[in-house]
Amino acid sequence: MLKGDLIAELASRFPQIYKNDLKLLTDVFFSGLAEGIKTGHVEIRSFGVFTSYLKKPQEMKHPVLKKTFKTQLRRIIRFRPTFKL
User: Fold this and answer.
1) 19 with 11: CB under 8 angstroms?
2) The CA-based dihedral angle spanning residues 28, 34, 37, 42, taken in that order and rounded to the nearest 10 degrees
3) Where in the chain are the domains?
4) Phi then psi for 42, rounded to 5 degrees?
5) How far from 60 is each of 56, 64, 65, 74, CA to CA, in Å?
6) Three-class HEC string of 8-71
7) What is the rounded CA–CA span in Å between residue 53 and residue 40?
8) The CATH fold of domain 40-85
């Protein structure tokens, strides 16, 4: 499901709310979710938990070229759904 599909679904369920307001609502929700994930932990009850951590650089070997290179430091996001899902 894309964000536009989500807005269309919300608009069909709540016809009294304008689509522009629903778009603003989803933008605020997802930006808040992104900011929370950057801090490390977001819990949405009866849905799941988003956690993030920094993965250290690693030595990798290219399978064809046989050259080694080092990966960059990066943020990994993990989602664990609740048992209800």
Assistant:
1) yes
2) 30
3) 1-38, 40-85
4) -135, 125
5) 12, 12, 12, 15
6) HHHHHHCCCCCHHHHHHHHHHHHHHHHHHHHHCEEEECCCEEEEEEEECCCEEECCCCCCEEEC
7) 7
8) HU Protein; Chain A (4.10.520)
pLDDT, tens only, 2-14: 999 999 999 999 9
Q: 68 and 59 in contact (C-beta within 8 Å)? A: yes
User: What local confidence, expressed as pLDDT, does residue 39 receive?
Assistant: 87
- Residue 85: pLDDT over 90: no
**pLDDT tens figures, 18-44:** 999 999 999 999 999 999 999 889 999
**DSSP state at residue 7:** H
Confidence of residue 61 (pLDDT cuts 50, 70, 90): very high
Strands lying side by side in the sheet with 41-44: 41-44, 48-55, 74-81
